[in-house]
Amino acid sequence: MPSSAALLQTQAYYSTAWAAAAADPARFWGDYARQFVWRKPWQTVYQADLAKPDIAWFSGAELNITENCLDRWAQLQPDAPALIWEPSHPDDAAKTYTYGQLLSEVTRLAAALRGLGVQRGDRVCIYLPMIPELAFAVLACARIGAVHSVVFGGFSPKSVADRLQDAGAKIVLTATGGHRAGKPIQLKNIVDEALLSCPGVSQVLVLNVPAIPAPMQPGRDLDWATTLADADANQGYAEPMEAEDMLFILYTSGSTGKPKGVVHTCAGYMVWAHFTFTNVFQYQRGQVFFCTADVGWITGHSYLLYGSLLAGATTLMFEGVPTWPTPARFWQVIDRHKVDIFYTAPTAIRSLMAAGDEHLQGADLGSLKVLGSVGEPINEEAWHWYHRNIGKGRCPIVDTWWQTETGGIMISPLAGVTPSIPAHATLPLPGVVPMLIDEHGAEVTGNPAQGNLVIKQAWPGMMRTTYGDHERFRQTYFSAYPGQYFTGDGAMRDADGNYRITGRVDDVINVSGHRIGTAEVENAINAADGVTESAVVGRPHDIKGQGLYAYVVYANPPQDHVVAHAQILAEVTKQIGAIAKPDWIQFVPGLPKTRSGKIMRRILRKIAEGDTANLGDTSTLLDPAVVDAIAQHRLT
Ligand code: WT7
């Protein structure tokens, strides 16, 4: 059965395990994987050809991840809390589901989905607020072998439609609405609008949230409660899946305008989620784990749901936001549910730090044992504030570096076992063999070092393909350094081998820990009235880490800048969602381009940052004068 204990409990054991996994991955992961429930054993632990790329783990095996998340624990500890749900409003009642109850909820929904004709391999789009049904939906798909594609509730109808079409989903699971910071969000309306351009979707299962009614479309929309009540209870069994069958698709932004569907498969992902959860957080039986990420992002998949449930932990799902009704909300939740492990993003830490320490008055926080950070580099000031004020100086902080593509944590301290260093993700986990590459494409050996971060060996949790486009997978991750996985991040390594992630080196910007592709935002801006072209770059932002700075060119300069500004924001919200709205918009006469027409983003980045004295050589530009014009009117 999957263990609830961390394997690596001392630094010496970490070092031995890292060396063992690097030297003989098949042996290391084969030994590790024995603890899970398999319907059929594997024939080969792994085959990986990263040049192709062709990656398979535990081939020949059959399993169902939900038997490992739910059934085993429901047998062993049926009354242990599996899921605690804390609603957005502090006066509303929390709900707790034991392992026994969670299994029965998931089984019921699985039966209902089978009853609707959803089959193994079908793609199911999930667009739900952060409520227990979201967890049931994800797990019910996994139970029947349907591929879940969770779409974050903040995305616009167009983004939802793009994802539905790309995945070829026939069914959407949604709710009439949800709550965000005291305001109702009309989710069903967004789905209705998205479906205008998705003729392939024939069914929408709608959870009725009574406070937020929505019209139902007869013949297409089905009421959640009645569908469940009508389902045949015997149809909720777990489908035996092949190790390399798809478990889910999760869309993420890349360098091009089109989001890519990151594909994770059943067995390797399961092993990686469990291994990283138990070891990084040094989870101990009975602990309560609070991950503040939305299930719409990979952190919500791998730790709020899969990793914690695989370990038999109690996972806490919070519908709310950190600052509503007050910036004390997280601390109330931690005290109310006696949270042991708290995992959040630097942007949340910075906004709570900025809100003032008075919001910590009356917070006990005595239950906390481990703190985690994820999604973007955490600056030293925020790290120390987190350590001192939330961890009271006694909780190790794990700064966990990873990506949607990696499935789980890759570089991180092991809480209280290996040293935590402010602003450093520190050491690679066993199975992760990183290297740094210089500008000539050569490996930088020795320490200290700096370069592009690349991973040399396959690990169980890595993505297997880009949905429907394997060539794009190869091109994006394995073509810069053939035979190796390129992360898109830059990093430094100190004298002791600790990694510090410096940020993206491609056209992706991390805004509040969310990945935004500059090309996507530019496409949206270009759709606004009168715009000829635009360029978006990142600029340091006190709370968000990076903010979006947009340079926009109009055919005829806009009469009214306030109106033009509002139109651009509206267009971005419509095309992508509010999360991609630029923080700064500068109207410019033109963009700095090379003679071949390539936009010189390096120059635009420097101007945005205010470093106008060091723009480098601009003489090779098509129109060098444009640079001065832009620099003169830069926004502060
Ligand atoms: C990108 C991946 C990991 C789940 C949430 C984000 C950045 C992530 C860290 C960290 C510095 C980090 C990287 C990475 N990032 N964690 N601890 N320190 N940077 O997943 O949306 O796929 O984004 O987030 O730039 O490439 P994602």
Write up what this structure looks like:
There is one protein chain. Helix 10 (298-310) links the parallel strand 16 (288-291) and strand 17 (314-318). Helices cover 31% and strands 24% of the residues. The mean pLDDT is 96. The strands form eight sheets. It has an eight-stranded mixed sheet, sandwiched between helices. The chain has a seven-stranded mixed sheet with strand order 5-4-17-16-18-19-20, sandwiched between helices. A four-stranded antiparallel sheet has the order 21-22-24-25. The chain has a domain at 520-632: GMP Synthetase, Chain A, domain 3 (2-Layer Sandwich), CATH 3.30.300. It is α/β, with parallel strands linked by helices and 636 residues long. It contains 18 helices and 30 strands. The chain is globular. The structure holds 5'-O-[(S)-butoxy(hydroxy)phosphoryl]adenosine (WT7). 5'-O-[(S)-butoxy(hydroxy)phosphoryl]adenosine binds next to helix 10, strand 20, strand 24 and strand 25.
Task: Give the gist of this structure.
This protein is an alpha/beta fold and 636 residues long.
| Main beta sheet strand tally, sense and closure | 8 strands, mixed
CATH superfamily of the domain at 520-632: ANL, C-terminal domain
N/C terminus separation: 57 Å
Question: What share of residues is helical?
Answer: 25-40%
Radius of gyration: 24 Å
Helix/strand/pairing category: alpha/beta
Number of helices: 18
Largest sheet: spatial strand order? 12-11-8-6-7-14-15-23
Q: What name is given to the CATH topology of the domain at 520-632?
A: GMP Synthetase, Chain A, domain 3
